[in-house]
Amino acid sequence: MATKTRDIFRQDLPEPLRRDVRLLGAMLGDGLVEYGGRDLLDDVERLRHAVIAARRGETEVEDAAALVESWSLERAGQVARAFTVYFHLTNLAEEHHRIRTLRERDTGGAVRGSVAAAVEAIREGGDDRLAEVIAGLEFRPVFTAHPTEARRRAVVTAIQRISDLLAALNAGQGVAEREETERRLREEIDLLWRTALRRNTQMDPLDEVRTAMAAFDETIFRVVPHVYRSVDRALGGGGTGTAPPRMRPFLRFGSWIGGDRDGNPYVTAQVTRDAVMIQADHVLRALEAACGRIGRELTVHETITPPSEALRNALAAARTGQPGRLGEMEKRSPGEPHRQFLLYVASRIRATRERDADLAYGSPDELLADLRTVQDSLVEGGATRQAYGRVQELVWQVETFGFHLAELEIRQHSELHEKAIAEVRAGGEQSEMTREILETLRVVAWIQRRFGVQACHRYVVSFTRSAEDIANVHELAASLGDVGPVLDVVPLFETGEDLEGAPAVLEGMLKIPAVQRRLDDTGRRLEVMLGYSDSAKQLGPTSAILRLYDTQEALTDWAARNGVVLTLFHGRGGSLGRGGGPANRAILAQAPGSVGGRFKVTEQGEVIFARYGHREIAKRHVEQVTNAVLLASTDAVQGRLRDAAARFRPLADEIDAAAKGAFRSLIETDGFAAWFARVSPLEEISELRIGSRPARRKAARGLEDLRAIPWVFAWTQTRVNLPGWYGLGSGLAAVSDDGRDLAALREAYEAWPLFNTLIDNAEMSLAKSDRAIAERYLALGERPELSETVLAEYDRTHRLVLAVTGHERLLENRRVLSRAVALRNPYVDALSLLQLRALAALRAGVTSEEERAHTEELLLLSVNGVAAGLQNTG
Fold this sequence. Notes:
By secondary structure, the chain is mainly α. Among the domains are: about 270-400, Phosphoenolpyruvate/pyruvate domain (de novo design (two linked rop proteins)); about 410-565, no CATH class; about 635-815, no CATH class. It contains 38 helices and 9 strands. Strands 3-2-1-9-8-7-6-5-4 form a 9-stranded parallel sheet. Strand 5 (about 460), helix 20 (about 465-480) and strand 6 form a beta-alpha-beta unit. The two termini are about 30 Å apart.
């Protein structure tokens, strides 16, 4: 069945995608021959054919494993590198096809998932309701340095160069130009092959800051105005660009990179200060470039578009303060006052970056005032298209990014604040950690004086268990006296117990004077963060999702009773085992009233570049999220959610109990942690150096202090994908194995978005796993009873997910994703077999240091390749 499906999908592959994959693959093959001779390519092809034959049932997987064992470690490493590079190229080809598809679907109408479609639906309830929803709209993506991007920066930039060349090739070229582009493509693919695929040095936090800046520089800064334009067009029809925009900016980007010190000793107060300065440098350079470009292009002459009195006065003031600078601009642009002033504004932005006090802006508001002077003058002169075209887009960028680019957030563990406040109260000598916490608060205050309170005012307290954990941070800030910062202290609820206790903690927060003052200052706005990763690691995926839903429901009710405008901050990972999956579907499955037009979520690791690495994909992602946030805030959607939850929640509770019992039983088995470390590359993953943060919060080797990312990453590598589905099968069996409630489960799947998302995400996770390969990994643990338990739950979950969905095979109704998984699986198998060879040798104990070094290199190469093939890490 798997073979027939794969063959069907090969035939079904869209011709442009097939062409790109064939071209890039052929060029890689030619490069392998140039590097290692025909024998290298032949070995790669032998393994490729062997794993495909095994998938078809024509041979056994042992035949492919025997081929892998027959090679030297050097040859095995070369083959692993070849499959890894192939996946990088295939991923690139698929991204190009996705962009093609987006362009083909963009017909200008209310495309499904677009802002226009959401506006059209809400408008049915009246223009007043639409205006109300739009006025409260917020989307806050927060970038984190959580280490889930396995590719090093040099690899990412090499892939980007290949991407640019492939785009040029597909755009249509003459013969000579095409030949040159193909030559350069071969050169870049050869360079990618010869580039080290993993980092040889540990990243530090500022490396992570600079890596994230690439997404802002290349994509996000430029995409934001296009998103706003789409919303404005949806609201105002064809009038956008000729009248004041009908919506205010609703995107606010945040960052934990350089601010998140929970368990990361390398994030210091100085790092936080440096991080915000790097951000400021990037956004000020971008604003200067945009303003200078618009200024040079705004060649409206004063005889046709006379300047307003306000603009003439602004120019006169500039001439008085900077006669030489204005004189040069007037000489270059005679009779073009709007151009002169914008070029002067650009010079002031540069002075702000260079900290030239005589010319620098004191705040983004001062810059906005100058831009609006230009805008109003153009309107007064009749040039409305110029006023609300590119100038408006620059205004949107300043309103969105300010001078700080992204709101830097601080995160620290509650236990450390408890120790610090005890030392502060006691007086006398303070520990290094307490001094560091206080210095961090001083740096936050400095950032606020330099860039405004909005640049850095959220302080997230991980493992919040009581209101006292919040009060401790406010007291630490108050201990600094007048130099203390303004803070919004955000509780983060992560474990099952903490999620249950969240309403009581918020009740206690209302009694804290500092919280009361902030509520008065902000219009009673309060933020709460919900952690998906640790709750899933503790309870299992099924119970964690249901517990989080209950918490959202309880907190929404609490906020309504207390007149609080609540924003729920979702700490989701990229993988399904950490709350990942399609963002728009997740939003539409939230508890009724919990969205309220506001959505805040973490974006991390490979997800940042997958969603924001290309302008068209980034624009589509933001539009899809915005669409979902708008629709989730409507009475109709909330009513359907409420009715479905009331009807099916008793069934879900029964599933929950059995699912949690199965999950806890597994991880509480004696020796489970050691077994997990033996059957997976858990400990070796840290050698990939994919982030600055240690894999564990403490030196202990148990599961409790293991971070969720390596937990999920390691299970992904084993092809088990356990965090995405384990326990669900037992939960479904508890209500369906006797046949009594299978119909009810199918009804819940159709009617309740939360249950639908739970099942679909498990189905996707199962589709990316492989039982035969997983069995080989589990055998390394030499605990057959644990292996049998895991595989029995896999079989049970697989069977019952298909029964509930009515599918004959996994992902039957998601053709594009199903095709991608089916075509990739054999190649991932090849890398898994290479990894299994290395892992088995390391677990058995290799004979020499040299052999161990080569074996570890093969293992880490294969880890990188499997991550690229599955497009998932943690």
